[in-house]
Specification:
FAD, five-stranded antiparallel beta sheet, alpha+beta, Uridine Diphospho-n-acetylenolpyruvylglucosamine Reductase, domain 3, Vanillyl-alcohol Oxidase, Chain A, domain 3, binds flavin-adenine dinucleotide, 32% helix, 15 helices, nine-stranded antiparallel beta sheet, single chain, oxidoreductase activity, disordered N terminus
C-alpha cells in the first residue's frame, strides 16, 4: 500500500479541533470511549482505524459542520457507513459516520428509491420486495448502499442489468468546500460524473436516489463441487461462461473454508469449488443453460432454484461477521485455457494455496455498455475480475500476501489495466493509478479542485499528487528559457 500524502496533525494542533467539536457537535466520539471503538471497528478487523474523532452525523447539517471544521483546521475528513471498505489511512483524519442516516423511501409509481447514506442493501431489498421491485445490490446485502454505489457496484445481476451506479438518479452530497449540493445529470454534472465510480473522492454523500427494477423472482443460487472435481469444473466453466447470453451472470470460486460452525459441513475444512449463477429469464430456460455445469460432476450442494429477489445474498453466501482478511484483486481481459491451468496450478487441488477464496467473476454483458450518463467508472472493457481473499492475521498473513501476489503475477499475461474501485480497498497514489486511467484521474482531480479547493476530503491530496505538477513544469520551462537566452 502506498503512502498517503494527507496532512497528519500533531497532538497540539488537534486540541482546538476537539474543543470545537465539544462545543458545536452533539454527536461526536473521542478515542477511549466505547462509542468511538464501535464506530471505528471495521468489518475487516485486520485494518486498524484511528481517526482523531468520529462525527456521528444525524443529519446533512452535521456533515456540513464536520467538513467546515476539518477545512478550518486543515484536517482531512473521511466517511464510512458500515466499515466494509475500511482502510488504514485514517490517522489524523476526522471520520464522519453516516450510520444514523437511515431514511428510506420507496416510490413504486416512479420506481425510485431514496435512501440515507447509512442504509444497507438488506433494508432496501426488504422495502422493495412487497412492490415486486429490485435494487441492484451486490453479493452481500449487509454492505452499505452509498459506499457500494459510488464504487460502481458489480452485483449478481451485473451482466444483465449493468452497474448499480448507472441507476443513480441523484445524490445529495457535502463537498469539500462545506456546501450541501445536489448532483444529477443536469445539476452539478461533473460532480455526478465523479460520484459514480470515484467512491468518496468527490464528497460525502448524505442521500442517494436510485432507479429500481421490476423483478420479483430469480432463478439463481450456487452449485458446489468437491475440490477433486475443480479442474473439470473450472475448465468447463471457462468455456461455458464465454458463450452465456446476457440474462446470465456467473462467477466461480475455489473455496478453502475453515471448519467453523457457521460453515455448512459439506463445505468445511476442505477444498470445494462453487459456480454461482443468476438467470433473469424463465426458470426452465435457466435450468437448460446451467445443465452443462451441473453435469460435470456430482454436486455436494446445489442451491440454484427460483428464489425471491430479496434473497439475493444466498447466491454468494458471503460471510457476515467481521473477520481479518487480506485481499488482492486484478482484472483480466480473457480467460483462455493456459490462464485456467495457471489458476489450477496455484489454487487447485494439491496446491499449497493460502487463500480462503479465489474468485473469478465474469464481467462483460451489460457491463460493457456505456451507461446512460458518463461516469468515472473505468473498467467497462474488462472480461473477468479476479479476487483472492485470505486470512489477514498472524502467523499466516505474510504467506497469504505472497501467495496472492504470486497468483496475480501468474495471471499477468491476461490481466488488463484498471481495477474495480470497490474491490481491495486501499488508499494512496499507487492505488489510484492502478485503479483509474490517466484521463479519469485528470478529470477527477479537476472535480476535486473545483469542489474541494482546500483538499479536505480524504484521498483528494493523493488524487492531486497523481497529476503532473503544473507549477513545477512552468518553473522548469522558465529555467530552460533563461538558460537558453543566457547562452545566446
Ligand atoms: C462481503 C463483501 C461483499 C462485497 N461484494 C461486493 C460486490 O458484489 N460488488 C461490489 O461492487 N462490491 C462488493 N463489495 C465491496 C463493497 O462494495 C465496498 O467495500 C464498499 O465500499 C462498502 O461500502 P460500505 O459503505 O459498506 O463501507 P464503508 O467502509 O462504510 O465505506 C467504504 C468506502 O465507501 C465510500 N463511502 C461510504 N460512504 C460514503 C458516503 N456517504 N459518501 C461518499 N463515499 C462513501 C468511501 O470511499 C468509504 O471509504 C463487497 C464487500 C464485502 C465486505
Amino acid at each position: 500500500m502506498s503512502q498517503s500524502t494527507t496532512h497528519r496533525p500533531e497532538h497540539d494542533e488537534l486540541q482546538p479541533v476537539l474543543a470545537h467539536l465539544a462545543r458545536t457537535t452533539r454527536t461526536h466520539h473521542l478515542p477511549g470511549t466505547p462509542e468511538y471503538d464501535a464506530a471505528v471497528s471495521p468489518w475487516n478487523v485486520a485494518v486498524v482505524q484511528r481517526p482523531v474523532a468520529v462525527v456521528a452525523a444525524e443529519s446533512p447539517r452535521d456533515v456540513v459542520a464536520a467538513v467546515r471544521l476539518a477545512r478550518r483546521h486543515r484536517l482531512a475528513v473521511a466517511v464510512q457507513a458500515t466499515g466494509h471498505g475500511a482502510t488504514s489511512g485514517l490517522q489524523g483524519t476526522l471520520l464522519v459516520s453516516t450510520r444514523a442516516l437511515q431514511d428510506l423511501h420507496v416510490d413504486p409509481a416512479t420506481r425510485v428509491v431514496r435512501v440515507g447514506a447509512g442504509v444497507r442493501w438488506d433494508r432496501v431489498l426488504d422495502a422493495c420486495a412487497p412492490h415486486g421491485l429490485a435494487p441492484l445490490a451486490g453479493s452481500a446485502p449487509h454492505v452499505g448502499v452509498v459506499g457500494y454505489t459510488t464504487g460502481g457496484g458489480v452485483g449478481p445481476l451485473a451482466r444483465t442489468h449493468g452497474l448499480a451506479s448507472d441507476r443513480v438518479r441523484a445524490f445529495d452530497v457535502v463537498t469539500g468546500d462545506g456546501e450541501l449540493r445536489r448532483a444529477t445529470a443536469t445539476e452539478n454534472p461533473e460532480l455526478f460524473w465523479a460520484l459514480r465510480g470515484g467512491k468518496g473522492l468527490a464528497g460525502i454523500v448524505t442521500a442517494v436516489e436510485l432507479e429500481v427494477l421490476p423483478i420479483a423472482e430469480l432463478y439463481a443460487g450456487a452449485v458446489y463441487f468437491d475440490g477433486d472435481d475443480a479442474p473439470d469444473v473450472l475448465r468447463r466453466w471457462a468455456t461455458w461462461a464465454e458463450r452465456l447470453p446476457r440474462e446470465a451472470t456467473t462467477s466461480v470460486a475455489l473455496l478453502r473454508l475453515p471448519p467453523l460452525p457457521s460453515v455448512p459441513p459439506p463445505l468445511a475444512g476442505r477444498l470445494t469449488i462453487a459456480v454461482r449463477f443468476a438467470w433473469t429469464g424463465s426458470a426452465a430456460r435457466g435450468a437448460e443453460v446451467l445443465a452443462p455445469v451441473r453435469a460435470v460432476a456430482e454436486p455436494l450442494v446445489d442451491t440454484v432454484t427460483t428464489m425471491p429477489y430479496a434473497a439475493l445474498g444466498a447466491i454468494h453466501a458471503d460471510p457476515v461477521d467481521p473477520m481479518p482478511v487480506h485481499e488482492e484483486h486484478a482484472l483480466l481481459g480473457a480467460l483462455p485455457r493456459p490462464a485456467v491451468e495457471e489458476l489450477l496450478r496455484l489454487a487447485g487441488p494439491g496446491a499449497a494455496c493460502q487463500q480462503v477464496v479465489v474468485e473469478l467473476r465474469q464481467l462483460g454483458g451489460a457491463l460493457r455498455l456505456p451507461g446512460p450518463v458518463p461516469s468515472a467508472y473505468d473498467a467497462r472493457g474488462a472480461a473477468y475480475s479476479l479476487m483472492a481473499i485470505g486470512l489477514g492475521a498472524p502467523p499466516v498473513v505474510e504467506q497469504v500476501r505472497r501467495d496472492a501476489e504470486e497468483l496475480v503475477a501468474a495471471l499477468g499475461p491476461w490481466t488488463v489495466a484498471g481495477r474495480l474501485p470497490n474491490f481491495a480497498p486501499r488508499t494512496g497514489t499507487a492505488w489510484l493509478r492502478a485503479t483509474y486511467s490517466a484521463p479519469t484521474l485528470r478529470r477527477l482531480a479537476r472535480v476535486s479542485r473545483t469542489y474541494d479547493p482546500g483538499s479536505v476530503i480524504l484521498g483528494s491530496a493523493d488524487l492531486r499528487a497523481t497529476q503532473p505538477h503544473r507549477a513545477g513544469a512552468s518553473t522548469l520551462l522558465r529555467s530552460l528559457q533563461a538558460l537558453t537566452s543566457a547562452r545566446r
